[in-house]
Design goal:
The complex is a heterodimer. By secondary structure, chain A is an alpha/beta fold. Chain A contains 23 helices and 20 strands. Chain A is 36% helix and 16% strand. In chain A, the strands form 4 sheets. A 6-stranded parallel sheet of chain A has the order 3-2-4-5-7-6, sandwiched between helices. In chain A, strands 11-10-9-12-13-14 form a 6-stranded parallel sheet, sandwiched between helices. In chain B, strand 6 and strand 7 form a beta hairpin. The chains are: A alpha/beta, B alpha+beta.
C-alpha cells in the first residue's frame, strides 16, 4: 500500500496500538495533522503547551506501562518539549516524541521555526532519529517504539521533515525489530543470581532496597514474594513506592533525604544489601563516603552502567528485575533453611527500636492546617486507591511520606529531574488512561503555576482530576533550605501576589474550593472527592512554616538524620 | 591510566556527536578521537584515547556500549596491542645548519620530509605517541611553525580483532 509520510506516521501509531497522542500542531506538522484528521483510531489530545504534552504522555506511560506518544511541530514546539523529555529520561519512562521538522532543503538555513532537534534533544534521549527518506519512515517508527520500550526504557525522538511527510512510499510496518547495535539483556546470569543468594541467606543484618526499576519492570509481585519469603527489612526509593505494599510488615517506608529513620539506619548498619532496580542516587545515598559502610551489595539492574556507578558492588546481576527476581524466588525455595533466623530476629529487634522513634510524627494544630494531615485525610477518603501525581518540593515529599501506596504505578512524580509543573499534565495522562479511577494531583502554589494552562485541556477532555494545592505561599522546599542553611535569608522564595486559585479554577470552568482552617479540611476534601465528574481545585492554606522531616542534610550520612525541628538530631552513639 | 578504546559504530549521521557529547556531558577526558569509514560501509571505526581511574574507565566503556549507535567496542589496553599516530610538522629551515639538523633528526626518527619551500620543511612521521612526543621534543631545537597530529589509531596484536 502506497501512503504519504504523514499517513505512514499515523498508520504506524495505529499498528503499534497507540490509544492517545498528546500534541500541538504547527506549520511543519500540518501534513501529519491532516492525516490525523482523516482517521479516528488514535485519539489526539490537544494540550496548551508542548511541555504539557510530554508530561501527559509521561504520566500515561508511568500509569499504564505503555509508551506515551507526543506530536509537536518544529522549532519552539520542540524546545518546549525538552524539559518533559529530560524528565522522562531521568526516570526511564518509555516515550516516543514525533517532532516535525522544516523541509529537508531548508535544514541548516536558519529557516522559520527551525531548530536542530536531534542536537537539542541528544543529551536527554535514549536515542533519536532524523528521517531523511520516506522509505525508511515506518522502520524508524518501529525502531523508536522498540528502543523506547525495551531494556532500560526511555524517550526516543523521531524528527520528520515536512517534505518527508508529503512524499509517498510503500507502507510496511515490521512485526518485530532486532538491531545489531542494541540488544538489551533480559535474563540474569544464573551463576550471578546464585552468588547473590549465597550472600542473602548468610546475611545477619540484611536490607532490601528497591527503586523505580522494580516498578518499570512490573516486578512488584515477584519482589513482594521475595520480601515475604525472606522476611527481611525492606525499603524503597521515592520512585519505587508501591512495588512493595506500604502495609507489608517488612516494609520500613521510603529511604533517603526525607526517608524514615528506620530505613536509613538499616541502610547504614546492614551487612548485606539487595538493590533492585535502584541507582544509588545522591538523594538516596547522602554523602557517599558515609554510605552503608559495612555492607556487601547485590545489585540487580537492566542497565550495566547503573551497576557500580556510585557505589562498589559485590555481586552485579544484569537483567530485567522481574526475570531475575522470579529466578531468585525459584532458587531460594531450596535454600531457606540456610537463613540464620536468630540473627534476623535480633536484627528486627534493632530495626523495631529505630521504628519506635516514629520519625514521621508531626505536631498537629487546631489553628493552622498541617500539610501532612491533608495527605493523611486524602489517603483515608480515597482508601489508598487513588493515582497520585505530584509536582516537586515539600508537597511531593509529604505525599510520598504519608500516602501509603499499596500498588505500583499509582505514585507518579518526577524523581530524577525534579520538574516543577509535572503534576497536572501527568494527571491528565493518567486520567485518560483510567477514566473511572480517582486521580489526584498534589501540588503547591509555586509548582502549579508552571503548567496552569493545562486546566483548559482538562476542561476540553472532561478530566475530573482532583487538584490539591498545598498553598503555603512559599516555594516551600527552597524556603526550608534557606531557613536551615542560609540563616533564614528567604531570597526570592516568597510567592508574593498569588492568584485567587478558586476564582482561577472557576474561570477555566472547573470547581474551586478553599479551606483555611483545620476543622474544615475533612468536609471540604470529602465534598471535593464526591464530585466524580468535575475537576475540583482545592486551595488548602497550610502552615507556611512547616518543614519536611526527618532530613539528612547535604554532606551527611544515613546515620546523621535530623528528626525534629529542635535538636532532634540522632547520633551514632545514641544507637550503639 | 591512559586507555585506547576502539569502537565500531553505525555509520549514521550524528553518531560522532553522540560519542563526543557523552564525554563532555559526563566530564570524561578525551586525549584524542579519530573516526573514519571501514571496509564495511555501514560501519565507522572510532579510536578514543582517554584516561581515568579503573572505575571511570569502566563507566566510560559501559556508557559507550549503551549508545544505540555503538555496535562493538574494546579497551585495547586490556590486551596486547599496537598504537600508531601520524604527525605532520612544519619547521623553519632557513640556513644550512638548520636544514642539516632537521634532516638528521628526520633520519633518526625514520620520518620523511614531504615538502620543501624557501624557508620551511614539512615533515611526516608515524609512530607510537611516545615516539611522536620524543620527535617533537627534539624538534624544539629548531623553530616549530605548525604541528598536526592525527591522534592515536589502535589495533590488537596477533589474532585479536574487533570485527563483526
Amino acid at each position: 500500500m502506497i501512503l504519504t509520510g504523514a499517513d505512514i506516521v499515523i498508520r504506524c501509531l495505529q499498528d503499534e496500538g497507540i490509544e492517545y497522542i498528546f500534541g500541538y500542531p504547527g506549520g511543519a506538522a500540518l501534513h501529519i495533522y491532516d492525516a490525523m484528521y482523516r482517521q479516528d483510531k488514535v485519539k489526539h489530545v490537544l494540550v496548551r503547551h508542548e511541555q504539557g504534552a510530554t508530561h501527559a504522555a509521561d504520566g500515561y506511560a508511568r500509569a499504564t506501562g505503555k509508551p506515551g506518544v507526543v506530536l509537536v511541530t518544529s522549532g519552539p514546539g520542540v524546545t518546549n518539549t525538552v524539559t518533559g523529555i529530560a524528565t522522562a529520561f531521568m526516570d526511564s519512562i518509555p516515550m516516543v516524541v514525533i517532532t516535525a521538522q522544516v523541509p529537508s532543503h531548508l535544514i541548516g538555513d536558519d529557516a522559520f521555526q527551525e531548530v536542530d532537534t536531534v542536537g537539542v534533544t541528544r543529551p536527554c534521549v535514549k536515542h533519536n532519529f532524523l528521517v531523511k527518506d520516506v522509505t525508511r519512515l515506518a522502520e524508524t517508527m518501529k525502531k523508536a517504539f522498540y528502543i523506547a520500550s525495551s531494556g532500560r526504557p526511555g524517550p526516543v525522538v523521531v524528527d520528520v521533515p515536512k517534505d518527508v511527510t508529503a512524499r509517498s512510499a510503500e507502507y510496511v510496518y515490521p512485526d518485530t525489530m532486532s538491531m545489531r547495535s542494541y540488544q538489551p539483556r533480559v535474563r540474569g546470569h544464573n551463576k550471578q543470581i546464585r552468588k547473590g543468594i549465597d550472600l542473602l541467606v548468610k546475611a545477619k543484618k540484611p536490607i532490601i532496597y528497591t527503586g523505580g526499576g522494580a516498578v518499570l519492570a512490573d516486578a512488584a509481585d515477584a519482589l513482594t514474594e521475595l520480601v515475604n519469603t525472606l522476611e527481611y527489612p525492606s525499603t524503597s526509593t521515592l520512585m519505587g513506592l508501591g512495588a512493595i505494599p506500604a502495609s507489608n510488615p517488612n516494609f520500613l517506608g521510603m529511604l533517603g533525604m526525607h526517608g524514615t529513620y528506620e530505613s536509613n539506619m538499616a541502610m547504614y548498619e546492614c551487612d548485606v544489601m539487595l538493590a533492585v532496580g535502584a541507582r544509588f542516587d545522591d538523594r538516596v545515598t547522602g554523602e557517599l563516603s558515609k554510605f552503608s559502610p559495612k555492607s556487601e551489595i547485590v545489585q540487580i539492574d537492566i542497565d550495566p552502567s547503573s551497576i557500580g556507578k556510585n557505589v562498589p558492588v559485590a555481586v552485579p546481576i544484569v537483567g530485567d528485575c522481574n526475570a531475575v527476581l522470579l529466578e531468585m524466588n525459584a532458587q531460594l525455595k531450596t535454600r531457606l533453611h540456610e537463613i540464620n533466623r536468630k540473627a534476623i530476629d535480633s536484627w528486627w529487634g534493632t530495626v523495631n527500636r529505630w521504628k519506635s522513634k516514629d520519625s514521621l510524627a508531626y505536631d498537629s494544630s487546631d489553628t493552622v492546617i498541617k500539610p501532612q494531615h491533608v495527605v493523611q485525610k486524602m489517603l483515608e477518603i480515597t482508601k489508598g486507591e487513588a493515582y497520585i501525581t505530584s509536582d516537586v518540593g515539600q508537597h511531593q515529599m509529604w505525599a510520598a511520606q504519608y500516602y501509603a501506596f499499596e500498588q505500583p504505578r499509582k505514585w507518579i512524580n518526577s524523581g530524577g529531574l525534579g520538574t516543577m509543573g509535572f503534576g497536572l499534565p501527568a494527571a491528565m495522562g493518567v486520567q485518560l488512561a483510567f477514566p473511572g479511577e480517582v486521580v489526584v494531583c498534589i501540588t503547591g502554589d509555586a509548582s502549579i503555576q508552571m503548567m496552569l494552562q493545562e486546566l483548559s485541556t482538562c476542561l476540553q477532555y472532561c478530566l475530573p482530576v482532583k487538584v490539591i494545592n498545598l498553598n503555603n505561599q512559599y516555594m516551600g522546599m527552597v524556603r526550608q533550605w534557606q531557613e536551615f542553611f542560609y540563616d533564614r535569608r528567604y531570597s526570592h522564595s516568597y510567592m508574593d501576589a498569588l492568584p485567587d486559585f478558586v476564582a482561577l479554577a472557576e474561570s477555566y470552568g472547573h470547581v474551586g474550593m478553599r479551606v483555611e482552617t483545620p476543622d474544615k479540611v475533612d468536609a471540604v476534601l470529602s465534598e471535593a472527592f464526591s464530585m466524580k465528574d468535575r475537576l475540583v481545585f482545592v486551595d488548602v492554606i497550610t502552615d507556611p512554616t512547616e518543614n519536611v522531616y526527618p532530613m539528612i542534610a547535604a554532606g551527611k550520612g544515613h546515620n546523621e538524620m535530623q528528626l525534629k525541628p529542635n535538636g532532634g538530631d540522632v547520633t551514632e552513639r545514641e544507637l550503639a | 591510566m591512559r586507555r585506547i578504546i576502539s569502537i565500531l559504530l553505525e555509520n549514521e549521521s550524528g553518531a560522532l556527536s553522540r560519542v563526543a557529547g557523552l564525554f563532555s556531558a559526563r566530564g570524561y577526558n578525551i586525549e584524542s578521537l579519530t573516526v573514519a569509514p571501514t571496509d564495511d560501509e555501514s560501519l565507522s571505526r572510532m579510536t578514543i584515547v582517554t584516561s581515568g581511574t579503573d572505575a571511570i574507565i569502566e563507566q566510560i566503556t559501559k556508557q559507550l556500549n549503551k549508545l544505540v549507535d555503538v555496535v562493538k567496542l574494546r579497551d585495547l589496553t586490556e590486551g596486547r596491542h599496537l598504537g600508531r599516530e601520524l604527525m605532520l610538522a612544519k619547521v623553519a629551515a632557513v640556513n644550512k645548519d638548520q636544514k642539516e639538523e632537521i634532516k638528521r633528526l628526520v633520519d633518526i626518527f625514520r620520518g620523511r620530509v614531504i615538502d620543501v619551500a624557501d624557508s620551511t620543511y614539512t615533515l611526516e612521521m608515524t609512530g607510537s605517541s611516545e615516539k611522536v612526543d620524543a620527535f617533537l621534543d627534539e624538534l624544539s631545537r629548531v623553530e616549530l611553525i605548525e604541528v598536526v597530529r592525527s591522534g592515536t589509531l589502535g589495533i590488537g596484536r596477533g589474532k585479536n580483532a574487533l570485527k563483526m
